[in-house]
Amino acid sequence: MTKLDLIRKAKALFLKWKLDVLVSPFSAGMLNAVYMSEMSKWRKAHPVKGYNDFYQPTWDYQRRIKLYEAICAAEGLDRKAIDYFEFGVATGSSFKWWLARNADPGSRFFGFDTFEGLPEKWGPYEKGAMASSLESLNIDDPRATFYKGLFQDTLIPFLERYKGGQRKLIHLDADLFSATIFSLSQLYRFLEDGDILMFDEFAVPQHEFLAFKIFTESFYIDYEVIGAANNYFFLAVKIKK
Ligand SMILES: C[S@@+](CC[C@H](N)C(=O)[O-])C[C@H]1O[C@@H](n2cnc3c(N)ncnc32)[C@H](O)[C@@H]1O
């Protein structure tokens, strides 16, 4: 029997004897360790060409504003018309920041959210957490439009009508692996040289990081990291084509 035959037999026996019952209790911890290690390798292989506050002894959500400021200054994102996409709007905190910062009348701001909270559990957050209604956003800027519902339902019809032409700043702030991989894979055919992807929870190894890793490796995406803040929780990358 060759080595390959042995491996095939071992796999078949694993299924036959239902060995998942032995492995399952340890899966979550092992997967977390594996993807944390993948993230550490990724960090070493991808130096940040721009703002980076690593290493910080404490976690501070407000550091994302420093990343926004830094990429605005480096990329001129407040000086010309852009198409801003936000996946995960919730109370509109980051959406309003970009709306106020880029005053160009030609800019367009597209916000996607269930506005009924997370569609599935994420770490300690239950399904429905972070719910905030569309009506409570209080945004009357005519450049902004919102798409209520699951990205999985709203994004494809939106993209069928979407006409590009402006630099895109795509803010992925839905936290979940499923939402992030779905959005990235649908946006793939619209990505152009210089477009920017921004993440808000990048350093969660089994969610935004994993979605980004699988997306970039499966679609052969070339990019450079242009900013990182709060120990890589907030990250910005620029697409190279
Ligand atoms: C962390 S919050 C967004 C925070 C917001 N960007 C801010 O700065 O305050 C994540 C949001 O993603 C939304 N979300 C997650 N998965 C989604 C999906 N598949 N479709 C639609 N919305 C989703 C949730 O409803 C939630 O409001």
Under CATH, the topology is which?
Rossmann fold
Cα-atom radius of gyration: 20 Å
Main β-sheet: number of strands, strand sense, barrel status?
8 strands, mixed
Shape: globular
Number of strands: 8
Portion in helices: 25-40%
SS content category: alpha/beta
Query: Which hetero ligands occur in this complex?
Result: S-adenosylmethionine
CATH C-level category: Alpha Beta
Element pattern in H and E: HHEHEHEEHEHEHEE
Beta-strand content bin:
15-25%
Gist?
39% of the residues lie in helices and 20% in strands. It has 241 residues and is α/β, with parallel strands linked by helices. The protein has a single domain (47-240), classed as Vaccinia Virus protein VP39 (Rossmann fold, 3-Layer(aba) Sandwich).
In words, what does this structure look like?
It is a single chain. The chain is 39% helix and 20% strand. α5 packs parallel to α6 and α6 runs parallel beside α7. With 241 residues, the protein is an alpha/beta fold. The protein has an eight-stranded mixed beta sheet with strand order 1-7-8-6-5-2-3-4, with helices on both faces. It has one domain: Rossmann fold. β7 and β8 form a beta hairpin. The model has no long low-confidence stretch (mean pLDDT 98). The protein binds S-adenosylmethionine (SAM). S-adenosylmethionine binds next to α4 and α5.
Features:
binds S-adenosylmethionine; eight-stranded mixed sheet; 7 helices; alpha/beta; Rossmann fold
How is this fold's topology laid out?
Elements lengths: L2 H14 L3 H26 L2 E5 L10 H13 L6 E6 L5 H9 L6 E6 L30 E5 L2 H11 L5 E6 L4 H11 L8 E4 L8 H11 L3 E8 L4 E7 L1
Parallel strand pairs: 1-7, 2-3, 2-5, 3-4, 5-6
Antiparallel strand pairs: 6-8, 7-8
Helix pairs in contact: 5-6, 6-7
The structure holds S-adenosylmethionine.
The site of S-adenosylmethionine has 20 residues, from α4 and α5.
